[in-house]
Amino acid sequence: CEQLAARQKAVSTLMVEGNSLEEIILEYFPDAEILEHKDVKWFCGCSKEHFADSLMTLADKDLEEMIEDGEGAEIHCQYCNTYYQFNNEEIKEIYGRKKSS
């Protein structure tokens, strides 16, 4: 197994050489059978509602401090780089929903 791995080229080298995905797969797995092709698409399912639910998981004192601050909150999704703003009224609503649940 180690001898076989030592003889194989790096995937990046195979890509630079212009090999197709199928050729690269067969280079590493000669007996592979490719059953179908699917496009890969990047998708982030984040939303303001999702992050509002996340805010509900904060400790009561943290939400209370945010309300007293009066500055609201900004949440940044690190996957898609979207920023979500929550004003003070929205924080109060989230806190109210948390207290009533």
Describe the structure in your own words.
The chain is mainly α and 101 residues long. Helices cover 50% and strands 8% of the residues. The protein has six helices and two strands. It has helices spanning 2-7, 11-16, 21-28, 48-55, 60-69, 88-100, and strands at 73-76, 83-86. A two-stranded antiparallel ribbon has the order 1-2. The longest helix has 13 residues, at 88-100. It starts with a helix and ends with a helix. The model has no long low-confidence stretch (mean pLDDT 91).
How would you briefly describe this protein structure?
The chain is mainly α and 101 residues long. It is built from 6 helices and 2 strands.
Q: Which outline best applies? A: rod-shaped
Oligomer: single chain
Please write the string of helix (H) and strand (E) elements: HHHHHEEH
Output the strand order for the largest sheet.
Answer: 1-2
Give the strand content. Answer: 5-15%
Largest sheet: 2 strands, antiparallel
**Unreliable spans:** none
| Average pLDDT number | 91
